[in-house]
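COMPLEX REQUEST
Ligand: pyridoxal-5'-phosphate
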Amino acid sequence: MSEANKLNSITEAIRIQIPRTDESEHSTPLYLTSSFTFDEAETMRAAFADENDENIYSRFTNPNVDEFIKKMCALEGAEAGYATATGMAAVFASIFALLKQGDHLICCSSVFGSTHTMVTKFLPRYGIETTLVDANDKDAWEKAVKSNSKMIYLETPTNPQLEIIDLEWAGNFSKRHNLILNVDNCFATPLLQKPIEYGADLIVHSATKWIDGQGRVLGGVIVGKKELIKDIYLFSRNTGPSLSPFNAWVLSKSLETLDVRLQRHCENAMKVAQALKQHKNVEWVKYPFMEDHPQYAIAKKTNESRWWYCLF
Ligand SMILES: Cc1ncc(COP(=O)(O)O)c(C=O)c1O
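STATUS: Structure written out below.
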């Protein structure tokens, strides 16, 4: 990612704010409301017909949720987004909104546990088949493609194995086979890695992790191509995994400090990794920016040259 873009999006994550009310408040107010009122029936009709951008009901849209989504789109370089109550709701909506009976999903085998359960136990109930492939076995990815393959789902780095997948390769692969590339970017955050720059169509996040970073709220978000988000929005607006305005307010504020928090996380993680490496009772240490990490070269190519956690 270019330095200019990075600074720009970090600044935007602070500056983006919904319009001030007549009270001239400094900080965005909290719109804790289930629904919105209309002075005229015609405006309401047009809102339900999608002819204007008026808020109708907080399961569909809400000012606090919109602010959080806009900040995430700025950070990821995405066209549009939809925010969800949890990270798993984001993973769920990004898959279930776009795949149908008879479709095939290719998924990296070392995904987060609940995602693994979702694709292996629940997707088959709806007639959607999944092939799990080793994250870094490129032949296995090629062999997994079928005529009904629709989407690739991957997580990089993986939780908890800390495997790094070559996003540049994944972007080219998905384009070559005309597949939707859906990336869980929760562990990297858009500050360390921007999958859209490598051709990802969708990004999902558990905002519960580093975006909040302080263990206060659950949340999730999906950002990406406008036409895909349109389908995800329609699915979610009618099935109900939406983010609460309060949690969105907390998460939007959290994004203002994400860059400084991550800088400290990364500095600390490097020091911890180096100390563990020298410890006589520690057999191995896995840290993407140590040369003995199996995907060190990939980490250097697709991630910011820093990382915030290590495994031992
Ligand atoms: C990589 C990854 N994706 C998704 C999730 C699910 O997020 P949530 O707990 O917000 O539902 C997690 C949770 O730990 C995760 O680590």
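REMARKS: Strands lie at 80-84, 104-108, 129-133, 149-155, 180-184, 202-206, 220-224. The radius of gyration is 20 Å.
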